[in-house]
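Problem: given the chain below (102 residues), write out its structure.
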Amino acid sequence: MEVPRSLALAVLAILGLNCLDMVLTVRHLAFGAVELNPLMRELLEHGPFAFATGKHFLVGTCVLALTTQCHRISAARGLCFVILPAYVLLALYQLALLAVSP
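Solution.
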């Protein structure tokens, strides 16, 4: 099965934005922020490595599962028009927090 190039680029962007989210989350937490996601908060209790590994595994697994279904228009649209924009908004939010944090 061949994955369309646009979908592969969307997947790479999602994974890259996920890494940015991980890094900035750890940075914000060091300055007193609170993780609102209960699953991620649980992973953070085991340390930053567990958090990064768990978060990347979860996101990567979900993205991989949707990518294997790229022949279904709903999976491809979900990746490109729901998940990718959500991660872009999350990255913009994280970057905006940088502007107001010490």
